[in-house]
Specification:
This protein is of the alpha/beta class. The chain is 36% helix and 20% strand.
Amino acid sequence: MAAMKLYEIRDTLKATVLTGDEAMDRTIVGGGAADLMEDVLAAAAEGAVLLTGLTTEHVLRTARIAGVRAVVFVRGKHPDEKLLALAESYDLPVLMTSDSLFVACGRLYMNGLRGLDGSW
């Protein structure tokens, strides 16, 4: 499994960094995509990036519990300021890409990032 730096994920997805500019050198060891947070909790997410179309506090709380190292919102979805403040308090970088969930996952996969256990 190939790890990526968060700045590589940002560049690959042509993403905008919404929080966590200082964390772009963070190592991401795998990735996953889900809109059902139960799927995230059921999988080994430690050290991963989570791609999702949901922009709710539940996403960030789940990511924190699961050990996710960054969240990418897809389809150009921009979370509100309250959500970004929560992300900052969790030291959880948040990015946004205009790509669909499918395309974003494909781009990361083609650039070497893999899922941690294949379940999400």
